Amino acid sequence: HPLSVKLLVPSLMKFYTDVEHTGATSEFYDKFTIRYHISTIFKSLWQNIGHHGTFMEEFNSGKQFVRYINMLINDTTFLLDESLESLKRIHEVQEEMKNKEQWDLLPRDQQQARQSQLAQDERVSRSYLALATETVDM
Predict the structure, then answer these.
(1) C-alpha distances out from residue 71 to 79, 127, 137, Å
(2) For the chain, does the N or the C end have fewer beta carbons within 10 angstroms?
């Protein structure tokens, strides 16, 4: 539809930047999920040649595009940084667990806490890397 070709890309780009401040207590993490879905939509729209012109107009228009790119870079940097920190912690726990004698010397509650942290780091790392990959692929 001609109206979607004209308005969808600029509206989504504005929404991508506006979601930085939602007012919710979980806004910092919510924005990544929202932006993930927007990037999926952008990739889909890019497959439709009818939207190329609208993308190019946004790229050339300046202000909104600069904000969008700035947030895209900031998100990617954060997600990669957090992923690397999680991977580092994962590696440390895996190395501890490899040394069976040392691991068995730890109190049971400490082992459980380390295993719980390991599971959480694995989830966070997977999630953040998926979000970062989607952002970079865009």
Answers:
(1) 12, 19, 15
(2) N
Q: Give the global pTM.
A: 0.75
Nearest CA among 61, 77, 71, 81 for reference residue 38: 71
Q: pLDDT tens digit string along 3-56? A: 888 888 888 999 999 988 777 777 777 888 898 899 889 988 888 888 888 888
Amino acid at 129: L
Residue 3 one-letter amino acid: L
**Tokens 């909104």 sit on residue:** 64
Please list the helix, strand and coil fractions of the chain in percent, rounded to the nearest 5, in that order: 90, 0, 10
**For residues 131 and 102, what is the distance between their CA atoms, to the nearest angstrom?**
36
Residue 137 vs residues 40, 44, 75, 88, 134: alpha-carbon distances, Å? 10, 12, 13, 24, 5
How does pLDDT run across 55-93, given as a tens digit for each residue? 888 888 877 888 999 999 998 999 999 999 999 999 999
Token reading at 33: 């999920």
